[in-house]
């Protein structure tokens, strides 16, 4: 996403106002996400919950500027908006199914957050949606394995999953699979 912001900013400096505005919108999206991610990380580690008052506004604070940037500069805005909407729906649906399969071990806040993260990851590319989720489960799984091997946790210990969702997404946004 940073590469896209830089590229659009350079086009904007060249006189294309749509690119400059899109760069500002994407920078807004990234800043909103990173600020919310830091807050959510701390809360989830401390309280094992992801509050709706932070997660739900992200759909508008992240989604609307993303859609706006797409409309301004995408060669096929309909295809791109469909791609990120599908990314959000797929990730939300997948996490909802995991919540059902785990009998509540995965929290409802994680499911709600997944939709926002799907918007962000799919904005880069559909492959990035897979890359981000691979990072999410790899980091969460390795952390859990370390806790079990060091006998600081058992298979029944509840571990906050939100920080791994945020870490995997952040890494995938900074080092995308294109």
TrEMBL record:
* Descriptive protein name: A24 family peptidase
Tell me where in this chain the Prepilin type IV endopeptidase peptidase domain is found: 36-134
The UniProt record lists the keyword Repressor: no
What superkingdom heads the lineage? Answer: Bacteria
Mind listing the UniProt keywords for this protein, alphabetically? Membrane, Transmembrane, Transmembrane helix
Molecular-function GO terms, alphabetical: aspartic-type endopeptidase activity
The entry sums up its family as follows: Belongs to the peptidase A24 family.
CC annotations in GO: plasma membrane
Q: Which GO terms describe its biological process?
A: signal peptide processing
Coiled-coil zones: none
The organism's taxonomy opens as:
Bacteria, Bacillati, Actinomycetota, Actinomycetes, Micrococcales
């Amino acid at each position: 996403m940073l590469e896209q912001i830089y590229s659009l900013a350079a086009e904007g400096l060249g006189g294309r106002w749509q690119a400059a505005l899109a760069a500002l919108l994407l920078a807004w999206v990234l800043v909103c996400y990173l600020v919310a991610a830091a807050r959510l990380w701390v809360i989830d580690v401390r309280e094992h919950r992801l509050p709706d008052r932070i997660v739900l506004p992200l759909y508008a604070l992240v989604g609307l500027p993303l859609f706006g940037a797409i409309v301004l500069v995408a060669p096929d805005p309909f295809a791109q908006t469909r791609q990120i909407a599908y990314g959000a729906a797929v990730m939300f649906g997948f996490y909802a199914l995991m919540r059902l399969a785990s009998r509540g071990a995965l929290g409802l806040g994680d499911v709600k957050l997944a939709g926002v993260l799907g918007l962000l990851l799919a904005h880069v590319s559909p492959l990035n949606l897979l890359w981000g989720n691979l990072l999410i489960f790899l980091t969460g799984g390795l952390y859990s394995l370390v806790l079990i091997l060091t006998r600081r946790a058992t298979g029944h210990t509840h571990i906050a999953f939100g920080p791994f969702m945020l870490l995997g997404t952040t890494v995938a946004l900074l080092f995308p699979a294109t």
